[in-house]
Amino acid sequence: MRKVIIIISLAAVLGACIRLAPAFEEKKTRSTFEDTPQEAKVQQYFWNQLHQGHYDSLPKVLDRLHAAYRQDPNDFKLAAHLGFAYAWQFTEFRRQQEVRPSIIADGDLALRYFNEAVELNSEDPRLLGFKAGFMLATGGVHKDDKRSTKGYFLGRKAIRMWPSFNLFSIGYVLSNLPADHERYQEAIDLQWRNLEACLCREIDRSNPDLDDIDRIPERVAGDPLKGRACVNSWIAPHNVEGFLLNLGDMLVKGGDLNAAREVYESARRVEEFHSWPYCHKLESRLRRLEDNVELFRRMGDVQQQVDRQVFINTRFACTGCHQKSEEEFAQQNDTIPLDRNTYFLSGSAAE
Fold first, then answer.
1. Separation CA 190–CA 316 (nearest Å)
2. CB of 164 closer than 8 Å to CB of 229
3. Where is 265: in which H helix or E strand?
């Protein structure tokens, strides 16, 4: 009899929990787009460290972001910045003198906060692209094919929403696949399509001519989305050079040295090339094209020289686009632009 009473009591408790559960499942409501002084200060600190390539500052960056997030956990911008910071820590882990096995948790945390940012602001396709990319990346780390597959198709959705940004984002993550993988050529195709979107013309991929690479800014000037994704900007001061270095690396890894040479050389035509902190990496690649084919096909050997790996496996996999030279940082007022939509979209800005 006592057992029956216990079972009935447990059933009643479970029933009550089920009825109460929806009260704990309500979605967060996004807080205002405007920042408090503390939020603005901590986000500025993050960008200052990234623009200077101060990877060692990330623990302090994360502490400050988490402190601000605790005060306003409904701010999608703080969630996104936490995603960015963990993504940087995860992606450039080769900067660490002794790589921690727990580094994989940084990838999971990046995904966790990008997911949060997407839930709070589903109107920014870039955030969706970052979420998809880290589903792909962490799915591979955990051998979780289901997560990787979901990330792939979410990435396709992000590409449809903003091609000129997410063609790169998704193709970049896929560049870590083996050169003979069925999706590796697709990854290269995504990069070519991105470059075609930014040049506003088709490219003969077997014999590319990129003499007009320096004309991208004028060609995309009338398109607000391409104008944000295709040029060097405050958020990514060497966006174009980094993109071309990555595409060249992917082509070398795929064995297409003729196209890779043209892509690498085209980066020299970018106005900001000579102030780019990593221009010497590109010059080194041009001198070692044939030798790098085999090296780039190695699967991210941690002990391998940092400039002899495909872009995504280097120590500058984030800073290659985002770091400024010391002169650039000193000369430019590195303050977040007043137009916050320069790097976040919300509502009508995404239309």
1. 21
2. yes
3. helix 257-267
Length of the chain: 351
Q: How many CB atoms lie within 10 A of CB 305?
A: 10
pLDDT at 20 over 70: no
pLDDT on residue 24 = 52
d(CA 307, CA 284): 8
How far is the C-alpha of 324 from the C-alpha of 320, rounded, in Å? 9
Which residue type does 110 have? A
What are the tens digits of pLDDT across the range 149-165? 999 999 999 999 999 99
Task: Give the pLDDT confidence score for residue 347 in this predicted structure.
Answer: 47
pLDDT at 34: 81
Q: Residue 252: in which H helix or E strand, if any?
A: helix 239-254
CA distances from 116 to 35, 42, 148 (A): 18, 19, 19
- The 3-state DSSP class for residue 162 equals coil
Band (pLDDT 50/70/90 cuts) for residue 3 is: low
Sequence-distant (6+) residues with CB within 8 A of 95 are 55, 315
Rg (CA), the chain: 22
Q: What is the set of domains in the chain, with CATH numbers?
A: 36-95+102-161 (1.25.40.10), 163-333 (no CATH)
Question: What's the mean pLDDT in 270-282?
Answer: 97
Percent of the chain scoring above 70 in pLDDT: 85
Which residues are CB-contacts of 153 (< 8 A; sequence separation ≥ 6)? none
Model pTM score: 0.89
DSSP state of 29: -
CA 144 vs CA 134, 135, 152, 172, 344: distances in Å = 12, 9, 12, 19, 30
Q: Mean of the pLDDT values across residues 327-343?
A: 68
Q: Please give the Cα distance from 79 to 16 (Å, whole number).
A: 33
C-beta separation of 248 from 260 below 8 A: yes
More confident residue, 228 or 111: 111
DSSP per residue over 291-339, as a string? Answer: HHHHHHTS---TTS-GGGS-GGGSTTTTHHHHPPPHHHHHHS-----S-
